[in-house]
Specification:
It contains 10 helices and 8 strands. With 414 residues, the protein is α/β, with parallel strands linked by helices. The structure holds adenosine-5'-diphosphate (ADP). The site of adenosine-5'-diphosphate (ADP) has 20 residues, from helix 9 and helix 10.
Amino acid sequence: MKNKRLAQWLQDHFEMLGRIDSPDDGPFHMALYESLCDMANSGDTGLVDPILESAAAHAVAVGRSLTDRLSVPQLRRERNWQRIGLEIDPEPAFAMLTDVDAAFVYIIRTMIDAYEEGTKLAHAAKASEISRLYTDSKQKVMEYAAEMSRANRELARLEQAKTDFISIAAHELKTPLTLIQGYVNILSELEATEQINSLVNGIIRGTSRMDIIINDMLDLSAIDTNQLELIIEPVNLKPLVDLVVAHLEEGLVERKQQLEILVAETLPPIEADRKRIYQVLKQLVSNAIKYTPDGGKIGITGTAVGDNGRETAINLKIQDSGVGIAPEDRPKVFEKFYRVGDSKLHTTGVTKIMGAGPGLGLAIAKGLIEAHGGRVWVESPGFDAQNMPGSTFHIELPLRVQPQSQVTLKHLDE
Ligand code: ADP
């Protein structure tokens, strides 16, 4: 029972108990009303009889009837009296009640019963309303679930179509491209005018850029279709980092960027595919160069990590002082074809500022690192092309390769 509601309800219906004409009755009515309210607040409606009994006893003691002004029909009074006689044990004070006072007691009792009955009905109505709402929402949830699973199937179909397209396009383009590259190489060796040589060089630059993109598509297709093969050997990371930096030296100089390498020679070697790890490092360092303004800083750090004093993995950090990455873009940059911002603003240079490619580099890097049983992630305070908050890409590689089940391993010493 909601006791506050009962108190309010009593207050609303108290008028029905009789108007107070005599000022002497005021405090008495008030005391009665307050004890009923206390009872309502304590939630114990069983107290109504003792309260009314003592009220009636008081009324008898002061020689006034409780319900002087309450007009209860004679027939009702008799029936009430009978019922009270049947239901209530006539205690001494109760025995002193006049029949009208008894009707008063009865009316209050009936009102409280009606209240309780009303509350029960309201609860039942609420329960049936809740059950209807529950059925409706269950139905809706089932409809949404069916809709979701339809959408998921469609997404999976589209994802598969994308994977098939990448694979078919890359394989179909690779052969004619190799042919063109072969002819262009022959052309470049022929005696020709300066103008022809410059045109041939243009074709060579274009075809080698296409070659990089097609190789990226083939890598991605191998990752997506679980056809990746890793050639495993012990790999020392410091010389590999040095090699990557040497290959990107030109870009660093052109962009006047400072590079700091903090990778100890003494780091334990990891079991890995040397070419693949080189590929990932080159991708991350060239991204750092691209997304950092001229004169910015790039740092490469390598540390051994482990538990209980035992080294189990290597953590490589590639940190830049560039534009940074917004929180909502951080997980997405590892998705294929994802590029932050307007793709029309991008250029295709490997180290040119903001020179984004087709958005495959980080997807491939993630696929290759995970194929070794490692993980890659990025931290950044956010994107800000004015204040340059920077980004830090982390790679964690286990010392002993832990390939995913679909990856084929070939050990070099086999
Ligand atoms: P792309 O070939 O376009 O460079 P990536 O997969 O290498 O593709 O990168 C995806 C997107 O992630 C880029 O378009 C760029 O917006 C963002 N990104 C990658 N590296 C960095 C970095 N170091 N700083 C800021 N943004 C970066």
